[in-house]
Design a protein that fits this description.
Layout (H helix, E strand, L loop, with lengths): L1 H13 L7 H28 L3 E2 L2 H6 L3 H14 L10 H7 L2 H30 L4 E2 L6 H7 L3 H4 L6 H6 L2 H29 L2 H17 L2 H8 L7 H10 L1 H5 L14 H24 L10
Parallel strand pairs: 1-2
Helix pairs in contact: 1-6, 2-4, 2-6, 4-10, 4-11, 6-10, 10-11, 10-15
Length: 297
């Protein structure tokens, strides 16, 4: 019970001034602009064919491909730029509670902020397309048009037959959200560890490297760099699907019974292993942390 109270108090302390923070406001504003531009592709198809969409499909199509997730992760770097949350009150908290509990509070803070951010994205994408959407848990005619033709690929909209056959819009949205939250947790904890170990600039660099590493391992990008044909990238595509964090966070890069790629559960385990490793390194670094840096001395 004492652990819960202390962790809750530390999380509440982290949220002080959160919604008045100019950096947070700018991040959510940029997210709105990102959703506006990315969801416009699907709206263009719906307007042209005068067809409807399921309410969650704009979110699925917006954050179902690697490029959109990369852009989203860059905004998350801006959102978590101040990790770990330090204040003159932090040394007092660390004297009154175990360091492992304080680190656990950082994890819960990151988790809650990420979930809040993703719910905001779902709300924005749904509101932007609300004139063409309906609430039923059934794939729309627009999704079928994109999946069974080349329009989805031409417009970079990740609507595919294998996704439509294997799940529903609600289930698909939930799985995408889980993958994005797991990806965000590993990204932010990497920044937290590097921030405590080296400094803020290095933490920003680590976050950018983590995001761009997955982007450069995209099979299409590698094919252009290596000047390979698509059929020559089959084994590379399979290998990258297992080692790239960005591909693990991309819903369409999973095994739906057609490919030798990781399942959603295996991707979650992949992220949890990385998170456990970073948490252990962060705890070890925290024990040797210079407390004068909390007050800026």
């Amino acid at each position: 019970m004492e652990t819960v109270k202390q962790v809750t108090a530390a999380v509440r302390c982290n949220f002080l001034g959160f919604f008045r923070n100019s950096r947070v406001i700018i991040t959510f504003l940029f997210s709105f602009i990102l959703c506006f531009f990315l969801s416009g592709r699907a709206m263009m198809v719906a307007d042209y064919y005068e067809s409807s969409m399921q309410a969650l499909e704009p979110f699925i199509w917006t954050f179902g491909d690697a490029t959109a997730i990369l852009l989203c992760s860059l905004l998350l770097i801006l959102l978590f730029l101040d990790l770990p949350k330090l204040s003159p009150f932090t040394p007092y908290m660390l004297l009154r509670m175990k360091k492992s509990r304080w680190l656990l509070a950082q994890l819960f803070y990151i988790f809650l902020v990420t979930v809040l951010y993703m719910l905001y994205v779902i709300l924005v994408t749904s509101l932007l397309c609300m004139q063409k959407t309906y609430p039923g848990n059934v794939w729309s005619k627009t999704a079928a048009l994109l999946a069974y033709s080349k329009m989805g690929k031409d417009l970079s909209i990740p609507s595919t037959v294998k996704v439509m056959e294997s799940t529903t819009p609600f289930s698909c949205s939930l799985q995408i959200m889980i993958l994005l939250v797991c990806y965000a947790l590993t990204l932010s904890f990497l920044m937290l560890y590097v921030q405590m170990k080296i400094g803020k600039k290095a933490a920003i660099g680590a976050g950018l490297f983590y995001s761009l590493f997955g982007f450069l391992l995209d099979p299409e990008i590698l094919a252009k760099i290596l000047r390979k044909e698509e059929y020559e990238m089959f084994l590379v595509r399979r290998m990258i699907g297992w080692i790239s964090p960005l591909n693990h966070a991309t819903y369409g890069m999973h095994d739906f019974g057609y490919d030798v790629l990781p399942s959603i559960q295996q991707s979650c385990v992949f992220f949890l292993v990385i998170l456990a490793l970073l948490s252990g390194l962060s705890f070890h670094t925290l024990k040797q942390y210079n407390f004068s840096s909390f007050t800026g001395e």
